[in-house]
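Consider this one:
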Amino acid sequence: RKFLGTLWNTYGFYVLYAEIDKFDPTKYSLGECRLSLMDRWVLSRLNTLVAYVDKCLSEYRITEPAREIQAFTDELSNWYVRRCRERYWGGGMTEDKKAAYMTLYTVLETLARLCAPFIPFMSESIYRNIVAGVNAAAPESVHLCDYPVPDANMIDAELEKGMELVLTAANLGRAARNAAAIKNRQPLGRIILCGSDASSISEELAEVLEGELNVKSIEFADSADKYISYEVKPQLRTVGPKYGRLLGGIRERLSAHADEAVAAVRGGGTYDFEVSGNPVSLAESDMLISASSGGRYVSQTENGLTVVLDCEITPELREEGYYRELVSKVQTMRKESGFEVTDHIVLSLSGSGIVLSAAGKYRDRLAGDVLCDGFSEGGDFVREWDVNGEKVTIGMRVSSVGK
């Protein structure tokens, strides 16, 4: 059920904007588009998926490719489309918008054919609308089409590996924000990626991660020890039988020298010391290690990758946070008031001077983000909002300029 809903919603997103822009995929060629990093990645993932599904089906394996199709569709919707949705906004068919449309069209058209044996009716609905409905030369039904064949030239294994690391870092970064109780819309100065694989993230991929986690910069470090403190206790199951009466002294030693102990056992080493003149040698399996971070830094770790969030919020970052929260409230009002995505509006803002100052500073950006043509008093729809603890009254009406 979740897979079907995600696929249909992604298809619906494409249809919504394609109809607004009167986009006709037969007039363009994917090969002539200037593809972005995200475009190249999703097309690589798509062709890797096609190869895997075809191989599995030729071996009469059904469950494995179905699960992989579901995983890809989730990444398509919750990563590719979410990160690229702003490319479909605004008027005119720019080169970037053309590439975004052709990439998403290619993915959906290929998915319709790929999924046809699994979900024949939904695949047919998608295909008949976005392919046969606009291209008279196309087969009438998805079930009359050839099954997809992977394009090896589209597959970039290094890019897929790097994006997989970015996705892991993004999940950890969001978890760190939750732990620090900092909203995603509040910009932060930096995150620090720690681990042996972290430095393999390219500059282009780092920019994607910066946008996803709403941070100004990404730094890399071999170790997170500078930002994390450890609590270490003996693993009673292994230490008890070996050292028995020395357990109390071992516990005190580990508690007093936790960072030293962790550094010693990292990578398979041992932590060697004495308790009452008796030698003790502990491996990582002999310790219960828990990491804690607080104050300025909050961290999350998974599979050797640690994301450290610098939670210091400068006045400039806080001001931008007010602006982003304000945009979110305006967009919510647009939706609740029944505005079309293409409707231009006139805004009225009153209340907190801090928020109004932020709106003034980002006035031009606000106009583009919410399709605002100007400001006036009142409006057809008026509501008071809490914007990061500040009270603001927002009013809006349809703009005659944008009609």
The mean pLDDT is 92. Residues 74 and 385 are 33 Å apart (CA to CA). The first helix runs from residue 2 to 20.
